[in-house]
Specification:
The structure holds two protein chains of two kinds. Chain A is an alpha+beta fold. In chain A, 33% of the residues lie in helices and 28% in strands. Chain A contains six helices and ten strands. In chain A, the strands form two sheets. In chain A, strands 1, 2, 4, 5, 6 and 8 form a six-stranded mixed sheet that branches. Chain A starts with 13 loop residues before the first helix and ends with a helix. Chain B is an alpha+beta fold. Chain B has an eight-stranded antiparallel sheet with strand order 6-5-4-1-2-3-7-8, covered by helices on one side. Classes of the chains: A alpha+beta, B alpha+beta.
């Protein structure tokens, strides 16, 4: 039985044709890079640029003066800021506007982030002198937690051209076109500043003749936690724990059980509270302000416990003196430790 | 002792809860843009946007205000882009936890602020260049009103 009466001969070549399709499409996708690397080859096998200021194979001395590219940036939103992992998601528009046609194949890449899926990028305009993209990408920023919970963070978005050097394009920071969207809000954080820097980035040699500088655009958003929130969620609970633990200091030796029960559980409360505070943070080599505060609280509780244990250490005849000394010394000492925890 | 403690607690309560009374300021406003956003069936303006700046305040402030038909008619009849007029600004506490301002009058045009308004926009920033080795490499724009700005234009105070 013949299924392919008319095409019975060439149908046998079909698998061979299909085998070559991926190679062919890849070659069509990257004409610029293929063309760029058509350079003389050094003895070591490395392509290089024989004329101009740079020997890098990515240099293009025939381009003429570099295109001066005004970079526009509009931050729409920042979501999912995770301090523990030091990452956040940013939704933004990026535009390049130049005074002369830009080199072919311009494609921004992120220096401190990743585009998790190609669908999260759309190119809205692709003209020789104007390009506009919309991105939703994930970025990484190491948090500075020394002042936690009154901390300020700097969220950075770095954009670079990785195969077009400053011999072809130069970025220009344009105040006019760098903005936050009208309804920009970052829950739990207050925007303090935005900063833009344009750098000529130089890589330590990755290959022979790697002497080209690459243009980099860096946007930084300075945010800080709301002070009142930090006050009421960290400092006030810590103070209340301390005050409750102190309440037993007004009980005499005959009520020592009640006295211990008023302060000992507060140690557990303080530990749990401290643990819950540190849950959202990565481990650090230094102490945060919250750690110092809790250290003050722990020492306060310890002093409180010593004042109670003193009833067991000393003779019964000293009970009155211990009670009075405890009343006059422990509360101010607790207060002092709390204040030291706050200000140190 | 008990009386003292109660007095201290009451004092602390008032210290935490008391807020400054709302104030009304007069300021010069520059009209940057006047744009009819929506017209009725008879092609008369129904909704109008006005972009204003604060020429007497240090830094860079832009506000886009949306207004209703009366506001639109008044603005279109009396003012044009480029005019500088006196406006009335109300500064008051917001339950979101900070003070905010609202322009309630531009020149002789009263503006009713719709509580459902999602379109009005305000941007307050003070920018300066980033200079490294004598060459400008970027800029930084402070988004929190500085003491200098608040001294000259106190309605920008948020805390």
């Amino acid at each position: 039985m013949n299924f392919f009466p008319k095409y019975q001969y060439w149908i046998w070549f079909l698998p061979i044709l299909l085998f070559f399709v991926p190679f062919r499409s890849k070659a069509l996708d990257t004409p610029e890079s293929a063309q760029k690397l058509k350079k003389p080859i050094s003895k070591s096998g490395m392509p290089f640029t024989p004329k101009g200021d740079y020997r890098s194979p990515f240099a293009n001395p025939d381009f003429g003066d570099p295109a001066r590219v005004k970079v526009g940036f509009l931050l729409k939103s920042i979501t999912g800021y995770n301090m523990k992992e030091g990452k956040f998601e940013a939704d933004f528009f990026l535009s390049y506007t130049s005074d002369k046609p830009m080199p072919d194949g311009i494609k921004p890449h992120f220096t401190n982030g990743i585009l998790e899926d190609d669908d999260l990028m759309s190119q809205i305009a692709d003209e020789p002198t104007f390009k506009l993209w919309k991105y939703h990408a994930t970025f990484f920023a190491v948090p500075d937690l020394r002042n936690f919970p009154f901390d300020s963070q700097e969220l950075e978005i770095g954009i670079e051209e990785d195969d077009v050097g400053i011999d072809q394009i130069q970025f220009i920071a344009s105040e006019e076109y760098v903005n936050l969207d009208a309804d920009f809000i970052m829950p739990g954080w207050e925007v303090r500043y935005q900063e833009v820097r344009v750098l000529n980035h130089y890589y330590p040699d990755r290959f022979e003749n790697d002497d080209l500088y690459y243009p980099r655009f860096v946007f930084r958003l300075g945010v800080s936690r709301y002070g009142t929130h930090a006050l009421f969620t960290v400092y006030v609970p810590a103070l209340i724990i301390m005050l409750i633990a102190l309440s037993g200091i007004w009980l005499r030796a005959n009520e020592v059980d009640t006295r211990i029960n008023s302060s000992a559980p507060m140690l557990a409360a303080a530990v749990f509270f401290h643990y819950s505070l540190t849950q959202e943070l990565p481990p650090t080599a230094y102490m945060t302000r919250a750690d110092k505060l809790m250290l003050g609280v722990y020492f306060g509780l310890l002093v409180n416990m010593f004042a109670t244990w003193a009833f067991f250490f000393f003779d019964k005849k000293h009970e009155d003196r211990i009670y009075h000394l405890g009343r006059y010394i422990v509360p101010p000492l607790n207060l002092l430790l709390y204040v030291l925890g706050c200000v140190l | 002792m008990r009386k003292k403690s109660i007095t201290i607690l009451i004092f602390l309560f008032f210290l935490i809860t008391c807020k400054k009374q709302e104030k009304v300021f007069e300021a010069n406003l520059g009209l940057n843009l006047i744009k009819v956003i929506k017209k009725d069936a008879e092609k008369k303006p129904l909704v109008l946007d006005v972009e204003v700046t604060y020429p007497d305040c240090p830094g860079h402030q832009i506000e886009i205000l949306r207004g209703n038909r009366d506001f639109a008619n008044c603005i279109l009849e009396n003012y044009k882009v480029g005019d500088t007029v006196t406006g009335s600004i109300r500064w008051k506490w917001d339950t979101l936890g900070f003070y905010r301002w609202q322009i309630e009058r531009i020149g002789k045009c009263e503006r009713w602020v719709d509580p459902q308004d999602e379109f009005s926009y305000e941007m307050v920033e003070e920018c300066e260049d980033y200079i490294v080795y004598g060459s400008k490499v970027g800029f930084v724009c402070k988004r929190i009103p500085t003491a200098n700005l608040i001294a000259k234009c106190p309605w920008f105070r948020r805390e």
